[in-house]
Amino acid sequence: MRIVFIGAVDFSRHCLLEIIKHSGHIVGVITLERRFAAFNSDFADLSEVAEAHRIPTYKIHKVADPDVIALLRSLMPDIIFVFGWSQLLPRDILEIPPKGCIGTHPALLPRNRGRHPLIWALVEGLQESGMTFFYIDEGADSGDILWQKAFPITLEDDAGTLYQKIKDLASEAIPVFLDQFKRGTAPRIPQDHSQATYWRKRGEKDGEIHWSASGLGTYNLVRALTHPYVGAHTYWGDHKIIIWKSRLEETPGDLRGHGIKPGTVVERGPDGLRVSTGDGSLTLLDFNVDGNAEVPVGVVLGRD
C-alpha cells in the first residue's frame, strides 16, 4: 500500500514515526517550508525524519497549487494521510487515492468540529474530549469516521498534557487502521450531522486575560494556551506579560468588596504573583514580562 504523508507540526512527526515503525510504505512526505509556517507554534521539520529513512520529501507552500497536485498524482498513492495540516484539500486531491484521504481531529466528531479543538476544550472546561481519524471530504470535519476514542480531561490537564494524550491515542490507532487498510477491512462510520457542533477560529485577542472574569475562567484560559501554544497574555502598562502556568487559590472571595480592583497584584509570594480576579484570586506561577521587568505589588494588570 503506497502512502503519501502530509503534515507540518510535532503531532505530524509523531504520526510519521509511528507509520514508519509499523512498516507503512511511505512514498513521499509533503510538508511546509519553514518560512510559510510562522502560524504553527508547534511546527516540525518533517524532512529530518523522512531523510533519515530515505523517504523523498517535498516542501511546499500551498497544497492546492497545480504543481503540487501533479506531484501527488505522480506518486500514485493508494492512500494519503493528512495529519497536522491546516490547509483544505481540493477535490482534485481527494479523488487521487483509491483508499481515500485520512485526516485527524482531536475531538469526538461530530461534536466540536472546526478550529483549535484542544484549546476550546480547556477554555470551556470540558471534562472529556477525544481523538478521531476520519475520511476527508469537501466539508469541515464531516467525513466518515475511521477510528475514534475518548479521553478524560482533569482540572490539572493543560494544552501540553492533552497534546500528549492525542499522541498516545495516535500510537494506539495507527497500527490498527494500517492493518485494516492492508486487509481491506477499514470501517467507514457515517457521522450524524444533526449532532454536529462547531468551534470558531481563535485569534490573538482571544488569548488576552480579562481579570474581571472568574478565577476558574482565567485559569482555564492559561492552561489552554500554554506550550506548545503561544501562551495567554495580559498587560502592565506598555509591558506584555505571557503567562504559562497559574494556580487557583483555594479560598475564593471577591476582593472588590475591599476596594481591590480585578487585575491587581495583591501579593508577591515565593512561587509567583497573586492577582485578583472577578471572584477571588489566581497565582501566576510561570510567566515572562517584556524586558524582564519586575512587576510590583499594587499595580493593576490588563486593559479592562
What does this structure look like?
- By secondary structure, the chain is of the alpha/beta class.
- The chain has two domains: 2-199, Formyl transferase, N-terminal domain (Rossmann fold), CATH 3.40.50.170; 206-292, Formyl transferase, C-terminal domain (Methionyl-tRNA Fmet Formyltransferase, Chain A, domain 2, Roll).
- Helix content is 25%, strand content 26%.
- It has seven helices and 14 strands.
- It has helices spanning 10-21, 47-52, 66-75, 91-94, 117-123, 159-183, 215-225; strands at 2-6, 25-32, 57-60, 79-82, 101-105, 113-114, 128-135, 145-152, 198-199, 232-236, 239-248, 265-269, 272-276, 281-289.
- The strands form three sheets. A seven-stranded mixed beta sheet has the order 3-2-1-4-5-7-8, sandwiched between helices. A five-stranded antiparallel beta sheet has the order 10-11-14-13-12.
- A hairpin with a 2-residue loop joins strand 12 (265-269) and strand 13 (272-276).
- Helix 1 packs parallel to helix 6 (159-183) and helix 5 (117-123) packs antiparallel against helix 7 (215-225).
- The longest helix has 25 residues, at 159-183.
- The protein starts with a strand and ends in a 15-residue tail after the last strand.
- 37% of the residues are buried.
- The mean pLDDT is 94.
